[in-house]
Amino acid sequence: MIADVQRILLAEDSANDVELTIAALGD
Q1: pTM for the full model?
Q2: What span, in angstroms and rounded, lies between the C-alpha atoms of 4 and 15?
Q3: Can you tell me whether residue 27 is helix, strand or coil?
């Protein structure tokens, strides 16, 4: 169960990174 939580957190971190990158490119 801990591994599942870690995977979810990693997925969220990756999504946030992508959104920040897209936002930076849009500026």
Answers
A1: 0.54
A2: 17
A3: coil
Give the distance, in angstroms, between the CA of residue 9 and the centroid of all CA atoms in the same chain. Answer: 8
Task: Give the tokens for residue 15.
Answer: 């999504």
Residue showing tokens 């971190």: 13
- Can you read off the two tokens belonging to residue 4? 């599942």
pLDDT tens by residue, the chain, 27 residues: 899 999 999 999 999 999 999 999 887
Q: How far apart are CA 2 and CA 16, in angstroms?
A: 21
CA distance 16 to 23: 10
Assigned token pair, 7: 């995977």
